[in-house]
């Protein structure tokens, strides 16, 4: 077994100005929320994405909760979510009393299957939440068309898709509300953080109030009212300006970060293509007209057994590859809402065969070459027949 330096799944990469901006936030003495760096992040995101309004939040989970608030989700409502996602996609609506309805995913993009969406819609459906898995866009046009027919808003859980594009439009700006994540495991980070993109001006006023504890403090800060007071329900979804300062450094260098991540993605995609064909593995599928966000790199292996063998091989070589989401409709919580095995056969099939490779901005070509070498040395057929031995790998 080789004793090379460990290659992690992700690494914290600083863009350069994080500490300087955090010092500036300290110097100006304002480290609570909605300070100068929060405003700068929001304005920058609005400009970069062409979004009409962006508000920072404490996480993508909380951004999704804000969306559920803004749609007045309540007990008895149904919300359609893909089964192949993180629990927050559903939970943000469930905490407001909604019943999650699980949609199966497409076998190619692993995104909500638009051809299976319509039969799930009932008079109780109050939202359709889509996830751009691995930063690869959903079929937004078809989804929006179906949603419009029933007058149901579409929410984008865009935790993985910041700066990805669908037919020229940035992900997160296409549905009624887009939710972003700046959690440490994503592409642009501040530890814990998120944002909402409000793509319908209808939500602007109420969103400002509910993230500021139900007060009109933001109006007050703009000088539009002479004192602020309790005007609506609300909570506290405002991140510290210290974290916004960190985030601003990450966002201002987004084009450099994106091109580096694109190089990492292209390298895997190119170097593993011949092996994938030979081994019956599938590399990520990007539909025409779509630009991925380069947030991660995954592949689908021919069987769960092959996944297990390759995972073991990579991990034994100090490479931190891993699997991803378990189908949400099979979770104990989903089962309590009546979801059953067999409801989403594609999600059930692919989740046990999906492998994620180390992926981060500073992943070097040398590190990637090592990952590729270990993957290529793995021959699924030998593993399946039980003849695989831990050789040089
Ligand atoms: C990471 C992730 C979330 C949660 O993001 P937080 O900012 O940690 O709340 C939600 N949905 C998806 C699809 C994610 O990948």
Concise synopsis of the structure shown:
The protein is globular. The chain contains 15 helices and twelve strands. Helix content is 37%, strand content 12%.
CATH topology of the largest domain: Aspartate Aminotransferase, domain 2
**How many distinct domains?**
2
Helix content: 25-40%
Q: Sketch the major β-sheet.
A: 7 strands, mixed
Number of strands: 12
The first-level CATH class of the largest domain is given as Alpha Beta
What are the bound molecules?
Answer: pyridoxal-5'-phosphate
User: Cα distance, first to last residue?
Assistant: 7 Å
Q: What is the oligomer described by this structure?
A: single chain
In terms of per-residue confidence, which ranges show pLDDT below 50 for 5 or more consecutive residues?
Answer: 382-393
Strand proportion, as a percent range, falls in 5-15%
What is the CATH architecture annotation of the largest domain? 3-Layer(aba) Sandwich
The Cα radius of gyration reads 22 Å
Task: Return the structural class.
Answer: alpha/beta
User: Mean pLDDT, as a whole number?
Assistant: 95
Helix segment tally: 15
List strands and helices in order, with pairings.
Blueprint: H1 18-27, H2 36-49, E1 53-57, H3 60-70, E2 78-82, H4 88-94, E3 99-103, E4 125-131, H5 140-149, E5 154-157, E6 165-166, E7 169-170, E8 177-181, E9 194-198, H6 204-211, H7 217-221, H8 241-252, H9 254-271, H10 273-279, E10 290-291, E11 298-300, H11 304-316, H12 332-336, H13 345-351, E12 354-356, H14 365-376, H15 380-384
Parallel strand pairs: 2-3, 2-4, 4-5, 5-8
Antiparallel strand pairs: 1-9, 6-7, 6-10, 8-9, 11-12
Helix pairs in contact: 1-8, 2-8, 3-4
The chain binds pyridoxal-5'-phosphate.
